[in-house]
Amino acid sequence: MAAPEGRPDKEQQQDRVEALGFIICRLDELRQLAASQGLELVGSLLDVAFNESCDAIRRERSSARGEENPQ
């Protein structure tokens, strides 16, 4: 799959990792806020989003390592 507007895939992947890092930080803050206010359902939904974001950043990083070190 080609990168949009001719951007290198590696650069696009780095942008995605940075975006996911930002999202993870905000979700963690929101999870803590929901917990402190006793908003269990909201906290549970934020937990799902947080865990999915953590999985996504692991996949991105793993993919980046695979491209740099082909086996």
How would you describe this protein?
With 71 residues, this protein is mainly alpha-helical. The chain has helices at 9-36, 40-68. The longest helix has 29 residues, at 40-68.
SSE arrangement:
Blueprint: H1 9-36, H2 40-68
Helix pairs in contact: 1-2
What keywords describe this structure?
single chain, 71 residues, mainly alpha, elongated
- How does the major sheet shape up? none
Query: Could you tell me the number of beta strands?
Result: 0
Identify the quaternary structure here.
single chain
Please give the count of helices: 2
Q: What structural category do the secondary elements indicate? A: mainly alpha
Q: Helicity level, as a percent range?
A: over 70%
Distance between the termini: 21 Å
Total discrete domains = 1
Per DSSP, what share of the residues sits in E-state strands of 2 or more residues? under 5%
Poorly predicted runs: none
Average pLDDT metric: 88
Q: What characteristic shape results from the CA principal axes?
A: elongated
**How much is the radius of gyration in Å?**
16 Å
Order of helices and strands: HH
